[in-house]
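Technical note accompanying the year-one report. For the benefit of new consortium partners, we illustrate the data format agreed upon in the data management plan: each record pairs a sequence with a structure-token string. No post-processing was applied to the example shown here.
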Amino acid sequence: MEAVKNYLDRMFANLPNTPSVMRAKDELLQMMEDKYTELISEGKTENEAVGSVISEFGNLDELAEALGVEEEVMLQKAEAVDSTEKRIIGVEDSKKYIEAKFSQALPLALGIALSILSFICPVITSEVLPDNLDMVGVLGMFSFMAAGVILIIVGALKLKGWGHINDKESTLSVDATKYVKDECARYDSTRTVLLLTGIVLCAGSWLPSALLSNFSRMENLVGAPLLFIMVAIGVFMIVYSSVCNYAYVNLLSLNDKESMKSAYRPVAGNDGKLVYVNPAAEFIMGVYWPTVTCLYLIVSFTTFYWGITWIIWPLAAILHIILKKTLIKRNGAGMAA
């Protein structure tokens, strides 16, 4: 029966994601399931039953009028002619792009982490070396920064040859869409763990300095370096998980968000993905947490009030909930309640 459902998904993949189309798909699925059950009860094998069901119900052109989606089918055919110039990305190309994006994530995240760690050099050398050797710390800092920049450039080069995806001149095939959505769902738990761990490390990076505040030399030798180390590791996890996740998001964004094959289905019983009220809202939600992270680091490093700036995170979480309720559509109409 899974083969029948997959075939049905392909039939409706390029139709608009409207209540009438969803209703038609549900009706056709029920008819297919009833016929499949009937054939199995008659002694047919699973392959024979699937073949018969697809043969009887597999032509949407013939069923469109009965299902009440004749207009949608005609519009889809017209749009298919207009979109023939777009490059179709299949499963193999999707795999290669995801691999390229994952290979980009490591040097990019490591480069940013090294840039943060570079500040440890002058902090430590100022404590253990004479004043006339301060340049050693400065040289160490710029060496770390240079290594970080090189890694960031290496990461950027990993995506050479994939410009057509960023230019949105392509679209995913039905099979590729399903593959990317499944892979994205599998990666989601890993992304959540990395993201939350990174946030916790950044938010708690002030603790070593606070605990050693009564020991001036220990605070400078241990507390301050640990602060930068925790922030660097936290930012590494946040950047790495975000870049990897963007591989899936970027591929899925190639699809028409109003089509049935899209990962963003604003209807009941969907896969949990949501549609924003407009492109600006989608952009805001897409950059929200990276912006909060940058704001936290800038404020914290500028003021050095690490014992206070952690409050940014709970406030940001509350604001995120409010924005979600305001900017996300559900059930294809209106804003989320």
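Partners are asked to follow this layout when depositing records. Residues 126 and 134 are 6 Å apart (CA to CA).
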